[in-house]
Amino acid sequence: MVGKNESESESGSGGDKPLDLFLKIGLDERTAKNTVANSKVTANLTAVIHEAGVTDGCDRTVGNLLYTVATKFPANALVHRPTLIKYIVSSKIKTPAQLEAAFSFVAATASDNLNVVDFEAACGVGIEVSLKDIENAVDEIFKENKAVIVEQRYRTNVGELFGYVRKKQQWADPKIVKQIIDKKLYELLGERTAADNEKPTKKKKEKSVKTEDKIIIEETAPPKPSEEELNPFSIFPSPEENFKVHTEIYFSDRPVLRACNSKGILEKHLKVTGGKVFTRFPPEPNGYLHIGHAKITYTSNYFQEVYELAVELIRRGHAYVDHQTPDEIKEYREKKMNSPWRDRPIEESLKLFDDMKRGMIEEGKATLRMKQDMQSDNFNMYDLIAYRIKFTPHPHAGDKWCIYPSYDYAHCIVDSLENVTHSLCTLEFETRRASYYWLLDALGLYQPYVWEYSRLNITNTVMSKRKLNRLVTEKWVDGWDDPRLMTLAGLRRRGVTASSINAFVRGIGITRSDCSMIRLDRLEYHIREELNKTAARTMVVLNPLKVVITNMDATIMDLDAKKWPDAPADDASSFYKVVYIEQSDFRMKDSKDYYGLAPGKSVLLRYAFPIKCTEVILGADNETILEIHAEYDPLKKTKPKGVLHWVSESSPGVNPLKVEARLFDKLFISENPAELDNWLGDLNPHSKVVVTDAYAVPSLRNAAIGDRFQFERLGYFVVDKDSSPEKLVFNRTVTLRDGYSKGGK
Prior knowledge:
Helix 11 crosses helix 12 and helix 19 packs across helix 20. The chain is α+β, with helices and mostly antiparallel strands. The strands form six sheets. It has a seven-stranded mixed β-sheet with strand order 10-23-24-25-21-22-11, covered by helices on one side. A seven-stranded mixed β-sheet has the order 19-16-17-18-12-15-20, with no helix packed on it. It has a four-stranded antiparallel β-sheet with strand order 4-5-6-7. It has 24 helices and 25 strands. Strand 8 (422-426), helix 20 and strand 9 (449-453) form a beta-alpha-beta unit. It is flat and about 100 Å long.
């Protein structure tokens, strides 16, 4: 079976490779190559091209529409795909707008008979929109909004204008609409000026404007939330719609199974759920929980019901007791051969299965297998195992059972018993969908809506359970809650908030693309957005360099600092004769693009005074800088460009509060280490840097585990669980935006 699939992926009709086939229909080379990298889309697009009869090539417009059919056609209406393809090839449907309308129509129709008249009306078949029609619509919109367009010039929201035209001419070619709008703008406004390219400034509240002007000039108004933001389940059918066909299962020896619920079964389900959405995420028993474990149920809670249904499956002739060894099962599956015991009498299988349950058959000597389709093109229909003998106590059920159900048998049944409305799993389980619905149909049970999504893949890390397990067990990291890992425990220990994770997940949405990779900095953006609002500001110096203010006596001077960007000055910070700055903020040689301290140069100490370096004290090697002498400007007449963070002595002659800072960075050097053969060799040796002798302001002494702070100019930090009364430990959650590094690194 594997060999056959590989052969099919290498060539299409007439020996054409998929890449050649896709280029022939007009896809650009980049899109074609990306498509070949996705086996599912490759198979879909190849099938669509053959259905369309365009293996020798076609117009690029037709090809692009066929590509959209291959990637977006509603799964519940596959029976109507050939009809839609005929409309595309014959140019009766020739624009993306018509195609989207067609998708909506067939999705609502599902597997019911297609009303051609209604379909053509809904898709604008036969409606020709001329160039003159589009020009007239654009002229009308420009007349209605001329005053506002002249005022806003090239800052006018072209998308709004485009939307107005589409309302008047729904089936107009969007490319032509855009061209005419651009041409009309140029005729009205002329060449762009420098002012047109400036960023717009926010205006104060103005008096009410005319209704027709409102949409275009309110540039600062917050965007309306999308339908998906208002209702996260909008991408799925509602529970009440789960009577429509959404999956077709093809057999080698019987009619197609169109998976759907009868009205009676669905009504019984809705009576229990009240029409609410109940989702299921796949279990991941790897020692540490993910978000799907917020409510865990166990299959063992249903062992009795699952067993009784297995007996019923045998009675209906859909399961049998088999005595093949694992190697024999593998061999027979590869050769698509039936087991010698596949057609044994039902009564015989019932007795043997009862013997299995009562512990009368040795472990490994018998299994219960589902009688599916050994000639199917889907290897997950090759009589999967339903039950195995295992004389091992169960963590929850104890020693009551010596036979245990397989995942392929139990998970769909438990979904049904728990009245799950939407069963969600990752894309690698997509080929198991046929087995899922075959079993529920064979038992006459309620069928949840199954939807597969891609794994969340983030750059510079690994998400595979096996790889994470190796990192932990081989001690490449410091446990499952190591702040460098993307486990929830690791993220929590790093100081990442739940709300920033939720914002990140909402932002990336849900996708079925199995080669998507989300950049790490996208997650970091949401973390910064959250912590910028909630983390108190303070100052810590990681690598202290002593600065003695020579023109200041030993008296204490209280300064005002801010805990929050817009807060009143409410945090008193003491300023003494001796302060400490970062070693990296001092250079012996100054330069124009450097804003730190240097001999003879002035900088501003944050919230305090300007200081000027007057002397550098070197060590015996005449290179090591021991301390700096400086003078401060009490009247603040000096206006230096550079601003440095600092920490003062806790009291005259006493060093500041000493803390430990752990600086975390990307765990791997490569963006996608999982694709490397030697992925462990790609570990970033600098992913964790421990600074043991950092200095902090005294107010941090009372910080508790989990408290979050912004260390000015350094990043956001959280108090780690390794902290003790003797010494605080801070984990860096994320760095700040790179605003202070100009010339300083």
